Automatic annotation (TrEMBL):
Keywords: Nucleotidyltransferase, RNA-directed DNA polymerase, Transferase. Pfam families: zf-RVT. Residues 113-202 form the Reverse transcriptase zinc-binding domain. InterPro entries: RVT-Znf. The keyword Phosphoprotein does not apply. This is Reverse transcriptase zinc-binding domain-containing protein. GO terms for molecular function: RNA-directed DNA polymerase activity.
Length: 312
């Protein structure tokens, strides 16, 4: 059995309560094990032995336990042993039709099966964090957003976190230094953006957005995110793209220096960040022509006669 199938089977207990059979003919629905009524699965309180002793089969359908007069075929003794059966209404069977499988959402509503609906039902839930709109938004660059998600959760493998793990007995972690400035041990707060290298990058990049109030401290960035990340204004969306791209390429530069022994200058990193955001802006749809012209002028984006944007 493949890994994928094992994973699917391991969540049967989560999925099963949401897969419901809408009774029509009653022939395709197993009366004991399928989810089709408020008491389902009935096998949860009636044992296989009791089912067999009553003359039923474990493969009996809903139609098999309803007589021609529209009454249940339950033995009288069952009504005493399992009084909840008295409350179970007999479904109206329609011959010549087929039972239909539907998805039951968190609100108990039956609906057509959709992958988005399934995911929304079974996914784990936590309280929404204030930076969620900063990380995930319609115009985001996915790889930048994933990096930013790790960054806000402080999950990047920075030197301060490696020290806590005591990683590598042959490595003297006390001698580690930021590979960008060599002035201090790297941490989230240092890399974004107290490091002298990152600080130069950030001070240049932030001039292309409304980020003048954000200095080189992580706390200052968090304050801006808390106040503006939910905004859908074009300028604020650009700010979010700049923050995400800056953090992504600074982290990339850090990794390149450690693992590939490759270095870029401050100006080169700045240019990579600006180009990344510029290319994303070329696909934007602006509500106001005046806003579009102002932003395109700032970012040196030109349009040809067919209104196709290209770098200036």
């Amino acid at each position: 059995m493949t890994w994928g199938w094992r994973k699917i089977l391991s969540i049967r207990h989560i999925i099963r309560p949401h897969i419901w059979s809408s009774i029509r003919s009653g022939i395709q629905t197993n009366v004991w094990s399928d989810m089709w009524c408020s008491l389902s699965p009935i096998s949860a309180f009636i044992s296989p032995r009791a089912i067999a002793n009553a003359g039923f089969s474990l493969q009996s359908s809903v139609a098999d336990v309803i007589d021609h007069n529209g009454h249940w075929k339950w033995p009288q003794a069952w009504l005493d042993l399992y009084p909840v059966l008295i409350t179970l209404s007999v479904p109206n069977l329609v011959s010549g039709t087929v039972d239909r499988l539907e998805w039951k959402d968190l609100n108990g509503k039956l609906c057509d099966f959709q992958s988005a609906q399934v995911w929304n039902t079974i996914r784990s839930r936590e309280n929404q964090v204030m930076w969620s709109n900063m990380v995930w938004f319609a115009q985001c660059i996915p790889r930048h957003s994933f990096h930013l998600w790790l960054l806000f959760r402080n999950k990047l493998k920075t030197q301060d976190r490696l020290t806590v793990w005591e990683a590598g007995s042959l490595t003297n972690l006390n001698l580690m230094a930021c590979p960008l400035c060599y002035a201090d041990r790297e941490s989230r707060e240092h890399l974004f953006f107290r490091c002298s290298f990152a600080d130069q990058v950030w001070n240049n990049v932030k001039t292309f957005g409304q980020l003048g109030s954000v200095d080189n401290s992580w706390d200052s960035l968090v304050i801006w995110v808390d106040q503006n990340s939910s905004s859908k204004k074009a300028d604020h969306v650009i700010c979010k793209l700049l923050i995400a791209a800056s953090s992504y390429y600074i982290w990339q530069e850090r990794n390149n220096r450690i693992f590939k022994n490759q270095k870029r200058t401050v100006d080169q990193v700045i240019e990579v960040i600006k180009n990344s955001v510029r290319f994303r802006l070329m696909g934007f749809r602006f509500r106001l022509v005046s806003t579009k012209k102002r932003i395109f002028k700032l970012w040196k984006i030109e349009e040809n006669e067919d209104n196709v944007a290209r770098p200036g």
